[in-house]
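Posting this for the archive.
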Amino acid sequence: MPTPRQKRLQKLVLVMQRLKDFHQAQHAAHIAEAAVAQEEAKAITETLDAGTAMTALFPELYHRRVANALERSRTSAERARQEAHRLLQADARGNALARAYREASDLSERSTADRERLEFIERGKAGET
């Protein structure tokens, strides 16, 4: 039967796994956003390089859009880097909690085994007298 400490540790391990999953999802979303912004900048640049009538009329608008897309890409890449760091931290904490849970379980099993051996010995002594 799990001890109260084991129950708490088990719940914490589950919470840390959920937090790790959250950071993983955020990391992936930021990487995707960075890629989309990079592609947008590339597409606008190609349109600008093609020299259409619209780009000739409003070149500063196209340049601003490219700059905004590149900035969004940089921002998203930085956020992805931060999430990767948080993911590593959550993973380390989760591993430490899992280790603590295993140690608590091992201690509980050893205590139970020791108690059973003691009872066996006491029964044997009671049978001798």
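The CA atoms of residues 36 and 73 lie 8 Å apart. The two ends are 34 Å apart (CA to CA).
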